[in-house]
Batch of 2 targets.
Target 1
Amino acid sequence: MEEMTKGQKIIKFLKENLYLVVLGISAIIFAVLIIIASSTATTSKVNDNKTPVSVITTYYTPVLDATICKEFSATELQFNKTLNQWEAHKSIDFLASAGAEVRSITSGEVVDVFSNYLQGNVVKIQHANGLVSEYGSLSDDVKVKKGDKVSANAIIGYVSDSAANEAEDGNHLHFTMYNDNGKKIDPAGYLNISSK
Ligand SMILES: [Zn+2]
């Protein structure tokens, strides 16, 4: 009799709470459908294009109110009046007032902060898409350290004339960009700057 009572109790409970059971099963089916749908969507995106469509990077100019005093040149020689010699300049020089804010062109991780006599104080930032940006001739008051995560347009330091190899050019940012193979590339292809 007791067994029957137990069984009857369970059946009674299930009947009374049938909507709960149905709801639970529906929720599980719904969740599974969403997981399947989202994984299918991701896969087809990657297959269609090889590169994920979601990567759209916005680049900010590293110094506002600056004039470009030296453009990027991979082979064409430019005169370096400090060193008194002609050289390729695989960077862009932004002439600005001493202490002008220098900002990360986009979000990334600081992979190096160093200083030496020729380049002054330098910050190097690795970006998610494989590109690296490098900010040279900064003042001693560098705002970031190695390992820091920086957001786009974050202040990382200030313009100065700390780079001895370009001291004659005065206060400026010596700005360099590298592709994912470590090759120097023309920042003008990424930054919204009007040259000259
Ligand atoms: Zn330079």
Target 2
Amino acid sequence: MQIDISRPILDKNERLAAENRAIFDAAGIFVLDLMASPGAGKTSTILATIAALRGRYSIAVIEGDIASSVDAEKIAAHGIPAVQINTGGACHLESDMIRRALSSLDLGTLDLLIIENVGNLVCPTEFYLGEHAKVMILSVPEGHDKPYKYPGIFQIAEAVILNKYDTIEVFDFDESEFRQVVSSLNPKAPVFPISATKGDSVELWAEWLAGRIEANKART
Ligand SMILES: Nc1nc2c(ncn2[C@@H]2O[C@H](COP(=O)(O)OP(=O)(O)OP(=O)(O)O)[C@@H](O)[C@H]2O)c(=O)[nH]1
Ligand SMILES: [Mg+2]
Ligand SMILES: [Zn+2]
């Protein structure tokens, strides 16, 4: 006999995600799920995005990590509400974790909630959290071949951020091959080369996100 436990887990997750989504829409919040490998620059990109958009939007962050509150402390140091989720071993976030984190946020005041998923290119793609968009970051040092090896995350992302672009001369990263493979997997997703820590070229990405926030406000 074979027991498949993945389906019931995913079904329960989807049900709670739909409830999360109803909460976000009732409060008029746009929610972004940011996915990437460990160290690709999720927290740095969130800080750069906050710097670009905090004058226009009220922002909060949910940080997902297996352990520690290092990332939430980095965000909170900039005066932005940040809630840390420790998964205690799970390599992705699930909807019930997001639901519990929401109770620590003043939802009525927010326009944008950014969720930093656990560093992982695989299972975060399978778990809908109620977000309006999933976006992924690949950093230059990881190599241009990653879309061949992890196609799922490139397919589900609505935009692809190419971070640590300031290091492109140091690595043998073939940007045109990377763009070609990404566009074959996901023709609609824009690719935004940025340097999160230097703040270079963050504007185009931030404007894309602002466009999504405005479109969502107009819809709800
Ligand atoms: N040169 C360069 N370094 C960067 C850039 N963005 C991030 N880093 C560095 O990369 C390291 C990891 O950055 P984080 O923002 O912590 O990455 P993360 O994806 O949030 O990491 P985890 O949460 O641990 O998975 C840090 O040492 C950053 O300073 C960039 O654009 N250029
Ligand atoms: Mg981080
Ligand atoms: Zn996982």
